[in-house]
Amino acid sequence: MKESLKIPFFLNILGWILSLLVMVVDVIVIRDWVSGKPMDLFFRAVYSAFSKIGWGVSLSFIVISCFYGHGGIINRFMSWPYWSPLGKITYSTYLIHLMIIVYVVGGFEGRFVFVSIWNTFIYINLPIIVLSLFFAFFWSAIFEIGVGRIEDPLLGRRST
């Protein structure tokens, strides 16, 4: 049984707002730089120093808040039982996704320029997600499940 962490309502709302704000700023602040406009050295240094820390702390707050039941609609969405079948292939997806990213982004001719969120989602993120899950299904079937079937008799465990 997990211990209960009581986060006051006001601090929880403030934490969610700050977390989402930091994450959005972390992504949007480099839009001009990605489009080719040079970023000032000071802002580049500040972004490099604090962007990953801010993202990590924000994501950590969201995970902790959801774990202890303060996540609201995000927690309900992430706790759907429909996500359970995907649990077997998540590690395989993690292992494969970098190769898929290199393949999809490498297929572009010319420079990649940020046009809009929807354009990026439809032409980059969606193919990467679909291809990663597709290949991860087979990767999982071959290696995770296959090796598990071989490993069980060797270690004297009963397979289920």
TrEMBL record:
It comes from Strongyloides papillosus. The lineage of its organism: Eukaryota, Metazoa, Ecdysozoa, Nematoda, Chromadorea. It comes from the Eukaryota. The chain crosses the membrane at residues 7-29, 49-68, 89-108, 120-142. This is Acyl_transf_3 domain-containing protein. Keywords: Membrane, Transmembrane, Transmembrane helix.
